[in-house]
Design brief:
The protein is built from 6 helices and 14 strands. By secondary structure, it is an alpha+beta fold. The chain folds into 2 domains: 165 residues, no CATH class; 70 residues, no CATH class. The strands form 3 sheets. Strands 1, 2, 3, 4, 5, 6, 7, 8 and 12 form a 9-stranded mixed β-sheet that branches. Strands 9-11-10 form a 3-stranded antiparallel β-sheet, with no helix packed on it. A hairpin with a 5-residue loop joins strand 7 and strand 8. The longest helix has 20 residues. The protein is elongated.
Amino acid sequence: MVGMNPARTEDGMITKINYGIGRPGKLWTGNTPSDGSIVNARIIERKCSVCGKTTRKFRCEELSASKEVNDALELPEVFITMGGVGSIYNHDEAKGGAPKHLRCWNWSERIGGHVIVDPILVMNGYVERKQLPIPKVGFRWVQTYWGSTLSEFVLIRDRKHPGLEIISLEGKCPPCRHKEELETTPADLMVTHEQFAAVGAENQFEYIVRMLELPEGTSSIPACRLLEYIHDQGHHMEEVCRPAIEVALWKYKQSPTVA
């Protein structure tokens, strides 16, 4: 499929997806179609407007699961190794790492995935680099997975290897967003048991009191402490705490004592 004119959309490329050893993880966004599905795929790269750090994630949506459509269209293949401990492989470019535009990473700048359009050859299993055939000039092996036993290598063209569309966005990274939120949240803002109950999270209030080791019978929690808890625990507590904090902040702003 080398030399094919890829079908590009306004925000991606129409490809056939092929999973490597790793599976979709934190560096994946959108749905997770089955192996061999036709997808609209691209890379989303976000840059923090405060600290300048970047993160890059693979995004795709399945367009059709029909076998007939698969048979009717000649599409490029996108090979993905995205998840699992073994796919976190910080390899220096000079030591065989993939070109930057074929890699994904998190806000901590740890590489955790590779997205390769039209790989020439994939070698996986109980393979060591020294066992691989020596590539000719203009080609090289990229290691996309490195587990305790299994490994995975992909043969690519060394120069100007085609990549997916990279969509660049600006925003704030989680640490900077968290810092700003703490700085702008009133120090005396308290979130009460009743406010958790108002958003359907009464049981979670009692759970959080225990997790924060607050005294039994506590009826309110400092909002800043809740924000720290959300930051430590992740998205599942975000959905629980955020609505209650918003209710508390709205009531706080309605108070006549607030200038």
